[in-house]
Amino acid sequence: MEYIPVEVIGNILSRVGDAKDVVVASITCRKWRNAFRYHLHSLTFNLNDSPVYRDILTSQIEILITTTIFQTDGLQGLSIITDDIDEFSASAVTAWLVHTRECLKSLYYNVQTNPSINILEICARRKLEKLIVVHNMILGVEPNYQRFPCLTFLSLSYVSISPLDLSLLLTACPKIETLSLTNLEITVSDAQVSVELNSSTLKTIYVEAISLDKFILEADSLEDLRLKDCAMEQFDLIGKGNLKFFKLDDVSVINFDLCEPIESLEEVDVSNFTFSWLSFYHMISRSSNLRVLRLWDVAFEDLDEVVYLEAVAKSFPYLRRLSFILDLKEHFLHFIAEGSYKMHNLAVLEIGWTAIHGQFYPFLENFLQKCPNLKKLIIHGTVSDAKTNEEYRTLANFTSSVVRLMREYMHVDVHFEYE
């Protein structure tokens, strides 16, 4: 160990994880203490995971954190997670941030203070590249003063913020590439909740558990758009056709408009969503380079609407993975496989049913004939506990049919997943 460079020891300590373990490791010898002081890059205080912190007073925890942080010089990554701990004094937390801010590149900040402090004012105009703020309030953003010239990643979770401050904060990050918004408390003075964001550098946005009347996003460089568990009356994306990855999961949107030419899409994943297939297909049909299409637990606004897989094959000739569920509850197939087309590049097919039915096997057999180069087949199914004699016969016939199919397509890796 005596031949290990002190810089390498600093890297080792930075990967240990929790601060208390880093401190214990650093007292091994003088060389390790020097590595802790001058070459430690990352430090994490996760007060939720350690029972040690629950047996001492909050004031004592403040002293421990203060002592630990003040023994470091040049810290680049700092994480402070204190969900289950009482409020800290504002002066102590401010001292932690002031001591580290000149070199800090990554900050995970989940601290409750009394009185509250302005995290943006303390950390602005420095080298910070990644900022995660949890369970805090952001009020009165001044983009000219509270500017983050190096920030590329911003995550706000359970944060209270106004639409104007959110917009100004994004403006204050001229190099922002990734934005994550989860469970925001949007504070407004009127009845309508509207958010308008504008960024020329933003490439990825993730939005979860947010309810809005209107969400307008203008992002010329956006490549990855993911919405989950959101309710909106209107969502508009204004860009320049760079979108590659698009995912909707359990989203309710009355008016959904991608106001750009959608030609660069490579992956589309839609689940737990009600929509018009014709409108949606028209929106994505020009993306001839699409590689992944997933339509899972989707509902159609028009009950008689169908998805013609022949049109999918022609619009997306390079499709490699296709996933969908057949609605067989009312003896109706929303997906039609007839036609003389072939899906030569399809390698993975993920398919499921809503109820065991005799139509499933003929559909699957017909569709597999269209996929000559299929490598993997994943079959999802729902089998209810209560069985009638007719259900038992249907299940037995289905099982026998699938076994025959597996023998015919022995080159295909078949997986079954039942609920």
Automatic annotation (TrEMBL):
InterPro entries in UniProt: F-box-like_dom_sf, F-box_dom, LRR_dom_sf, LRR_FXL15/At3g58940/PEG3-like
The F-box domain covers which part of the protein? 4-45
Q: Name one Pfam family in it.
A: F-box-like
Annotated protein name in UniProt: F-box domain-containing protein
Q: Which organism is it from?
A: Saponaria officinalis
